[in-house]
Amino acid sequence: DGGITQSPKYLFRKEGQNVTLSCEQNLNHDAMYWYRQDPGQGLRLIYYSQIVNDFQKGDIAEGYSVSREKKESFPLTVTSAQKNPTAFYLCASMGPTPSTDTQYFGPGTRLTVL
Amino acid sequence: AQSVAQPEDQVNVAEGNPLTVKCTYSVSGNPYLFWYVQYPNRGLQFLLKYITGDNLVKGSYGFEAEFNKSQTSFHLKKPSALVSDSALYFCAAASGPGGFKTIFGAGTRLFVKA
Q1: What pLDDT score does A98 carry?
Q2: Residues of chain B with C-beta less than 8 angstroms from the C-beta of A3
Q3: Would you give the DSSP letter of residue A70?
């Protein structure tokens, strides 16, 4: 899981509450990503950021928000607007050159809405 | 819409036999192609990637993948399967400006029986 930490490992939330998932990397990578993993659907891209203070929506950004104030940090907020937030969330980072770099993944956070 | 397809939800193979996990892609241009492996409740680990050049790519743990441009396929192979290869395998394609956005397939679960 090389150099990427996600916390907490398990998270429980009541309906209607916002919750923030942490992702930190010490790989000095420019790009960072958030994915959602559901059984049988693979990984779906929520948001990604190529540099500090910039980020792009992925395929399923509705109900989520992110910030990228520091190179090493890319927190994800799951808002009450996300209708089905129970899932496994994975953060990843990558160096500046996709042709030679690969994504490194964190260990994930499992979010359960009660 | 751009997509990556893994047509088999599950592949079963006996230990010592060759294995193939299939992947096809529908992505514009010349995408970078990847295989990742996931063990239970863990993040994804990189196996191999195709950027350009030789159609047979060798990766970690004895895995290799064959790129076929005419069939838009990137099948994962291993000559002799091990029980420890049992895991969830994801095919992915990087697309978009600079290749930063990555699209994942739904995953194929590999079971290797002793």
Answers
A1: 73
A2: none
A3: B
Q: Which two tokens stand for residue B5?
A: 């397809």
Q: Does B27 touch chain A (CB under 8 A)?
A: no
**Inter-chain residue contact A45 with B90, CB threshold 8 Å:** no
Please report how many Cα atoms fall inside a 13 Å half-sphere around the Cα of residue A91, on the Cβ side.
Answer: 30
Q: Is B32 on the interface with A (CB under 8 A)?
A: yes
- The dihedral region occupied by A71, where left means phi > 0, alpha psi between -120 and 50, and beta the remainder, is alpha
What string of pLDDT tens digits covers the 114 residues of chain B? 789 999 999 999 999 999 999 999 998 888 899 999 998 877 889 999 998 888 999 999 999 999 999 999 999 999 999 999 999 999 999 877 777 888 999 999 999 999
Q: Rounded to a whole number, what is the distance in Å from the CA of A77 to chain B's nearest CA?
A: 20
Neighbours of B76 (CB within 10 A): 26
Return the amino acid letter for B48: L
Task: Supply the DSSP symbol for B84.
Answer: G
Residues 6+ apart with CB under 8 A from B99: A98, A99, B31, B32
Per residue in A47-64, pLDDT (tens digit) is: 999 999 999 999 899 999
Q: How far is A85 from chain B (nearest CA, A)?
A: 18
Report d(CA A27, CA A95) in Å as an integer.
8
CA dihedral over B3, B4, B7, B8, signed as positive or negative: negative
Cα separation of A41 and B106, whole Å?
5
Return the structure tokens found at A85. 């937030």
Q: Which residues of B touch A56 (CB under 8 A)?
A: 101
